[in-house]
Design goal:
Length: 304
Amino acid sequence: MKDARPRSRAKTAKKKNTEYIVEKKETLLVSLLSHLPHKSRNILKAVLKDRQVSVDGKPVTQFDYALVPGQRVEVSWTRAVPVQQPRELNIIFEDENIIVINKPAGLLTVATDKEKRKTAYSMLSDYVKKENSENKIFVIHRLDRETSGLLMFARNEKIKEQIQENWGSTVSQRTYVGVVEGRIEQPEGTISSWLTESKAFIVYSSQNPQSGKKAITHYKTLKANNTYTMLQINLETGRKHQIRVHMQDMKHPIIGDKKYGSSDNPLRRLGLHAQVLAFVHPSTGEPCRFETGIPEKFQQLFSA
């Protein structure tokens, strides 16, 4: 049913807040500039960064956050004293149930035998405890250490279990950007196989349905030269090392991925970035979509 609320312009509330109802699909910063023409782009970027903008009651800092008609945007002109974010993390969305970060390459999601403290999990745990010592963080999914990009955590165990148990119906899109060795002749396609992990923590691919869990990966070429190909990669399933193994299957391994066949490492990191994460919010039922830019180092490989 269409929202019956009247269309309205931005209005200023008594508590130095501005609020309005979204009338069309557009990004958050574009919407703010349209509804608040007396405010400069720099001012609006500053209030976004300082977590003073909320959408349907949830703080949003991402300037290109996708809005849909009927949502309520509120801007607080009173700057709150923020809890200092971990320097290594870029928190792009946070509410009482989930936190979405843009993880840098080189940072573990969770602890290992060799690294206990410098992980996304431990940093976020310390961060939420500054607000309340009883606050906790729960891991929903993971990214490999050398993979950068969007990663979601839960702020309570119920939300964690709800998302994990309903992963297929909750998460609607996981898109990666990957740079692989060589030029791929077929510009787009689908790779399907069954994956199994050895005791040495290496994942193997097979066409035998009895060998492991089914994995399906879709790819599309974004850029190419004689040395590398940049791919947009969509996961239909989310198996461990799925993209890395499937690119090895194609004889075009992810650059920097020595474990799965790469002999070239121009970035001094894995050429894989989790660019888009879209899901149904576990508490409100609203669609959420986050997107980051393609890492500049990836782009530089195709600038010549």
